[in-house]
Each structure stands twice: as C-alpha cells, then as structure tokens.
Amino acid sequence: MKHDHFVVQSPSAPAKQLLLLFHGVGDNAVGMGQIGSWFAPLFPDALIVSVGGAEPCGPTGRQWFSVQGVTEENRQQRIDAIMPTFVETVRYWQKESGVGPLATALVGFSQGSIMSLESTKAAPGLVSRVIAFNGRFATLPEKASTATTVHLIHGGEDRVIDLAHAVAAQEALIEAGGDVTLDIVDDLGHAIDDRSMQFALDHLRFTVPKHYFDEALSGSKPQDDDIIELL
Prior knowledge:
About 35% of the residues lie in helices and about 20% in strands. With about 230 residues, it is α/β, with parallel strands linked by helices. The chain has a single domain, classed as 3-Layer(aba) Sandwich (Rossmann fold). The strands form 2 sheets. The protein has a 7-stranded mixed sheet with strand order 1-3-2-6-7-8-9, with helices on both faces.
C-alpha cells in the first residue's frame, strides 16, 4: 500500500509494539516524526511510524480532509469519505509489523487526533490505545467499549479546537461505557509541549486499560500474546 510515511524507529528484532503517528493539517510525516522521537527510547521494541495524510496540502504539507469550508454539518461526511483509507493504513502497518490491535497505539495531533478518535467509531477494536493531542470527535460517540483506551490531552488555551470538545468527548465516552482519560495543560494553546508529552508517555507506561480489569473480573483469559505490550 503506497502512502506517505516516515519510519521513526524500526527495531532489529520483530516488533512487539506498533505506534502510528498522525499529524495536523499542513504538516507532514517528517514533522510529526519529531514527536515519535520522544517515544522511541521508552519503547525500544516498537515500530514507530509517522504517517502522512492522504491528500497534499500546500507546498510540503498533507491532510486527511480539507478544512476549507468545513462546518459542523459537513465535517463528519468528509471524515467518513476518507476513513476507509485511514483504517486500511493502520491495518497495513499491523500486517507489516506482525503486531496485532492489542499492542497498537495511534498518536494524533489536531486533524490526526480527529481521524484517530473517529476510527474508534468506524472500526471498533482496531487498536488498543489512542493518544489524542488537541483533537475532537466530529460527532460525539453514542456507543463505546473498553477495547480501546482513549487518552485526551488538550491545551487549556487552544483557540483552534476548543477544550470544550475534549471535555464533551470524555463525558460522551464515559456515558457510553468507554475507557477514557483527560489531561488539560492549562496555559497551552494548539500545540504539543513537554508537559503534553509527559502525560502521553506516562499513560502508555502506567495507565492500565479498563478492559484488563473487565477480563479479570469475568475470569476470561487474553487470547493475544501481545496484550501486555503497551502497559
């Protein structure tokens, strides 16, 4: 499957984890790859790939869908049109790496977060974790499960995607029975800083997904050997 991408880290041995990064409008895979460099030292067994949007945007940037003329009414339609390509891209790297959904995490910023969050509605169970920096749902989910743990990280002074969208997303996921955390960086705008990154790194290392507890309470045993890889 041909698409724009930048490999941040490729372990010499078969990968045990897969981290896919998705940038915002007008950025590119190489630019977002800098964020991936924060994860590499802590996850040496992970294949870390920054994926470019499906469409060109400006001289060197890319996007998943155009924001020209985007409204609350048409945003979902634009996302739905490109979502099969997004999901196919995630599955391509899962196949390439040999890593299943239980050890796959999506890390997005802005539009990359929107696509990552929306994928949990379009393809439930596609991945185990979503780290969403300064993102939102196009329309809030009415259904959710604990199969995917969502970590929302948002700047309190974001003027591009208001913090209210992250708060609403958290509330909707909780109401629907999902697994979600929300961290607010009080004086941060539409950006990622070292505080945001620390939240993300801590969640991937220390936050135990709720579905582990659900499985323990039910007495069922995980079927996938990679279930522990993103603890």
